[in-house]
Amino acid sequence: GDIVYNGDGEQSDTEALGWAMISMENTNESSAAAGKTNRYDKEFTLSAAPGEGVAGTNALKAAKKSSYGYAAMVSNPISITAGTDYLLSYSYKITDLTFSAAAGYALAIRVLVEQFDANGNCLITTKKGSLISNTAGKITADIAQWQNITTGFTASEGAATCRIYFFMGGMSAKVSFNAWFDNISVVEQAA
């Protein structure tokens, strides 16, 4: 069955339980891992959004205020089994997109899967080897309808847990938007 906690936003009507925002660099690396002190995560508000989901239920909402920079909505650690193939599926949309200059755009949502061994050592980092989906290039207009994405990954040798990153941000101007996610699911791929 599904091994993602609160991938549908149904665990709370206010909080995005099981998820957090972290500051990222455009290298797919967290700002902290890159030795930077950027706090782009502070430009986002992460919450549950009752009634906004695919079927009128809850969704998860990452609201970016008009600013520069990137962040990722990151899952709590998820238990995985080394050598196992997994299917990751999710729905997303982008609304209320604004730019401070005509050259601005939002980045396509990148999905990264970071993997760790049983001692918490990182085996697959966000910077190297973890990109499993890049939905498009530049987003210059709202994506008002839910987009359903399915992709996959294989748990590395020695892997015990993973964290899923939904990387987002703006380029070439101050950018604001609402990113909505629902039905985030990770299941073992049938043999």
Describe this structure in words.
By secondary structure, the chain is mainly beta. 0% of the residues lie in helices and 55% in strands. The chain is built from no helices and 12 strands. It has strands at 19-24, 44-49, 59-75, 78-79, 85-99, 105-107, 110-116, 122-124, 131-134, 138-139, 143-154, 161-188. Strands 1, 2, 3, 4, 5, 6, 7, 8, 9, 10, 11 and 12 form a 12-stranded antiparallel sheet that branches. The chain is globular, with a radius of gyration of 16 Å. 39% of the residues are buried.
Write the layout of secondary structure elements.
Blueprint: E1 19-24, E2 44-49, E3 59-75, E4 78-79, E5 85-99, E6 105-107, E7 110-116, E8 122-124, E9 131-134, E10 138-139, E11 143-154, E12 161-188
Antiparallel strand pairs: 1-3, 2-3, 3-12, 4-12, 5-11, 5-12, 6-10, 6-12, 7-8, 7-9, 7-12
User: What is the number of strand segments?
Assistant: 12
Q: Please indicate the percent range of residues in DSSP E strands (runs of 2 or more).
A: over 45%
Helix content: under 10%
Mean pLDDT: 92
Gyration radius from CA atoms, angstroms: 16 Å
Main sheet summary: 12 strands, antiparallel
Query: What's the helix count?
Result: 0
H/E element sequence: EEEEEEEEEEEE
N/C terminus separation: 15 Å
Tell me, briefly, the overall form: globular
Low-confidence stretches: none
User: Which structural class best describes the helix and strand composition?
Assistant: mainly beta
